[in-house]
Amino acid sequence: MGYDIERFVGYVNEGLLCSICRDVLEDPLQAPCEHAFCTACIHGWLVHHSNCPEDRQMIDVSSLRPLYRYMKNDLNRLQLHCKNREYGCQMVCSLESIDRHERECEYSQIPCSNAGCTVQIERRNLDGHLAVCEYRSRECPNGCGYTILSAEDTQHNCVAELRTELELLRSEMICRVEEAKHEMESRLDSQRRHMVQKESILQNEIEELKSQMSRMMSDVRSLMAAERQHRQELEQAELEKREL
């Protein structure tokens, strides 16, 4: 649907009206036959038809194009009243800037931001409404720190709330202690496995050193025996030499 023509100030060229809804073009598209439509209008039309609603020429979605630049410029220069005119807004903007103004308009009807409140109120009055809204939240005046809604004042019990908070804290602490315990046990298991592996490696190295030492001792004994044998042979040779 297009913009209600009653909102516009002054004359609006017939070529800037949607051929389907007859309102001023909104987000316009143009057919090859140069008839223009609101995007929503022509897409809805083509769901059930395959021709232009003005001259019945065959068209489809892929043949639609943006509006000619000069027509787009003429459209953007049109002046119109804010949609919140009935609430008191007197602003008149160009069509090009109306969306920006209406997003920030002080007369726009917006919902209360408090959960559970269904009131729609003008943006300029929102702060005043929030100050008295029955769904507003605030901290307990008795000092328990609990956030309450005005509607819950009669049911609020500081002691009960503090007990509940204490139980929650206790449960959370128990969970954290258990998590820390499991983490420490996991680390100890990992370190224990590492130490066992290191011990096994060291034990193997000790056994290897023992084996090497045993071989060395055997070699030393063999050398000593060979040396005695050699000395005896020298002594025997010396005796034979003297006899000769």
TrEMBL record:
Q: Does the keyword Metal-binding apply?
A: yes
GO terms in the biological process aspect are:
regulation of canonical NF-kappaB signal transduction
Taxonomic lineage per UniProt? Answer: Eukaryota, Metazoa, Chordata, Craniata, Vertebrata
Q: Which SMART domains match?
A: RING
Q: Which domain of life is it from?
A: Eukaryota
InterPro entries linked to this entry: Znf_RING (IPR001841), Znf_RING/FYVE/PHD (IPR013083), Znf_RING_CS (IPR017907), Znf_TRAF (IPR001293)
Residue runs in coiled coils? 192-243
The protein in question is named E3 ubiquitin-protein ligase NRDP1
